[in-house]
Amino acid sequence: MKSLLELFVHVDDFCQVFLPKLEHHLLSSGVIQRRRTRSLSVSEVMTILIHFHQSHYRDFKAYYCEHVLQHLGGEFPGLVSYTRFVDYIPSALFPLCAYFQHTCLGNCTGISFIDSTSLDVCLNQRISSHKVFAGLAGRGKTSTGWFFGFKRRCCINAGSW
């Protein structure tokens, strides 16, 4: 397990290269949007999320409230409340996935874990009137029941760990 400082340096170095490239490739809607500066950077959010998975905590809320807010205030001077941090997580999802793909994927050893989850686009009652993903979305079934939308699949190579 890397120390928190080593982890942050590695993640921040990746973000310094990746985020400008990501901004360059994003499409704009033409509407000028206000971009407020956050008290936590994307690399800090990513570091906290990765560090949670390296910790002994099973519940992220307990980890953030009991460990991060109590003991890591010196390392992350701009810490925010738990609910605000949860609002920051979606903005770090794509860079986090790119970081894992860049640093963690190895050669396939033949041992893989596969999982899938549903991405509902509308309620089942509204399938006939749904137009946004017409022709793309479809009906599917999971262990929890039927849905209309997409199925997201994830394959993890166990040999890279």
Distance between the termini: 12 Å
How many beta strands in the DSSP annotation?
3
Order of helices and strands: HHHHEEE
How do the strands of the widest beta sheet line up side by side?
1-3-2
| Count of the separate structural domains | 2
Total number of helical segments?
A: 4
Sheet of most strands: 3 strands, antiparallel
The whole-number mean of residue pLDDT values reads 85
The poorly predicted ranges are none
**Structure classification:** alpha+beta
Q: Give the radius of gyration.
A: 19 Å
The helicity comes to: 40-55%
Inertia-based shape: globular
Strand content: 15-25%
What does this structure look like?
This protein has 161 residues and is of the alpha+beta class. The protein folds into 2 domains: 4-28 and 36-104, no CATH class; 112-160, no CATH class. The chain has 4 helices and 3 strands. The chain has helices at 4-25, 42-54, 60-71, 82-104, and strands at residues 112-122, 138-142, 145-157. The longest helix is centred in the middle third of the chain and has 23 residues, at 82-104. It is globular, with a radius of gyration of 19 Å. It starts with a helix and ends with a strand.
